């Protein structure tokens, strides 16, 4: 396995009596997208600030590109990092073009990227307008453009799709996928779960500063023992007259089936000549998230899967 781009080992951050992050350990590999999920106050933004080196850990070790990000030695490597905070803020009097040019110079990124990125995020026509005239969605697009400056090798994205319409959200994820293919690592924090799952490699779920679990979605489904939904069309109510199928039935054509029973149920469904269609839906990210978030506190023991 390649050397991790980000490595946290037993990291805690304490503000007086508040444990914002509590004994947190995880890594991000080159080219990996890690989804970071949790309720408000779970420690997501604090985790990002620790990786950025904006704040220092109270205990434990943070390592980014082989260096403690809070030290002077890490200053040069920060050029390889792109960051989008949850609430973006820019100089209101400057135009979008001037803002992005300013950030490009700060980051020593090629100035030729500025107009390309403004076009990519749909702000080419508004590039010469003052930022104070931008809507929330337009400011978010500008924030995305500055995060992508310099083709970073590590992207930290805190609620990146807030204020974006569906088309802009789709284009954003296409940009993330493109950077990932180029070897970039991404830490993605979002409350909008439905659009996220197909773009992440693993999920890390936090609660009260602690890691509840981390793994691929398949691994988390297995750990949570969440059933697969099977929809069978054309049986005309036969499900309820079948002893096996009726034990999993939730409606006339829908079954909620534990993973260990999927093959047996499918074989039984295929014995019906009237069967016209079968659809299978494993538990989605939102269901996985809700399951782990509502576990009793004594069950919140983090598990990390090794692949």
Automatic annotation (TrEMBL):
Database matches in Pfam families: ABC_tran (PF00005)
Domain ABC transporter: 6-233
GO molecular function: ATP binding
Claim: Ribosomal protein is one of the keywords in the record: no
InterPro entries, alphabetized: AAA+_ATPase (IPR003593), ABC_transporter-like_ATP-bd (IPR003439), ABC_transporter-like_CS (IPR017871), ABC_Transporter_VariousFunc (IPR051782), P-loop_NTPase (IPR027417)
Record keywords: ATP-binding, Nucleotide-binding, Transport
Gene3D superfamilies assigned: P-loop containing nucleotide triphosphate hydrolases (3.40.50.300)
Keyword ATP-binding: yes
Name of this chain's protein: ABC transporter ATP-binding protein
Source organism: Vibrio barjaei
């Amino acid at each position: 396995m390649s050397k991790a781009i980000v490595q946290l080992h037993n990291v805690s951050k304490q503000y007086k009596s508040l444990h914002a992050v509590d004994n947190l350990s995880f890594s991000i590999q080159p080219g990996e997208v890690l989804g970071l999920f949790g309720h408000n106050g779970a420690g997501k933004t604090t985790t990002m600030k620790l990786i950025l080196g904006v704040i220092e850990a109270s205990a434990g070790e943070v390592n980014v590109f082989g260096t403690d990000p809070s030290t002077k030695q890490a200053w040069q490597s920060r050029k390889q990092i792109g960051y989008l905070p949850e609430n973006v803020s820019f100089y209101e009097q400057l135009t979008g073009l001037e803002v992005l040019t300013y950030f490009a110079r700060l980051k020593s990124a090629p100035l030729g990227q500025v107009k390309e990125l403004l076009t990519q995020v749909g702000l080419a026509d508004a590039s010469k307008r003052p930022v104070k005239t931008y809507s929330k969605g337009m400011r978010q697009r500008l924030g995305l453009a500055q995060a992508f400056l310099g083709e970073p090798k590590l992207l930290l994205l805190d609620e990146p799709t807030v204020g974006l319409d569906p088309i802009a959200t789709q284009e954003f994820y296409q940009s993330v996928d493109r950077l990932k293919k180029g070897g970039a690592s991404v830490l993605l924090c979002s409350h909008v779960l439905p659009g996220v799952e197909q773009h992440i490699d693993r999920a890390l779920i936090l609660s009260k500063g602690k890691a509840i679990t981390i793994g691929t979605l398949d691994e988390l489904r297995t750990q949570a023992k969440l059933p697969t939904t099977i929809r069978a069309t054309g049986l005309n109510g036969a499900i309820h007259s079948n002893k096996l199928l009726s034990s999993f039935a939730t409606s006339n054509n829908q079954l909620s089936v534990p993973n260990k029973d999927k093959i047996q149920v499918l074989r039984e469904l295929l014995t019906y000549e009237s069967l016209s269609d079968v659809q299978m839906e494993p538990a989605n990210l939102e269901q996985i998230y809700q399951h782990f978030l509502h576990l009793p506190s004594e069950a919140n023991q983090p598990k990390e899967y090794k692949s």
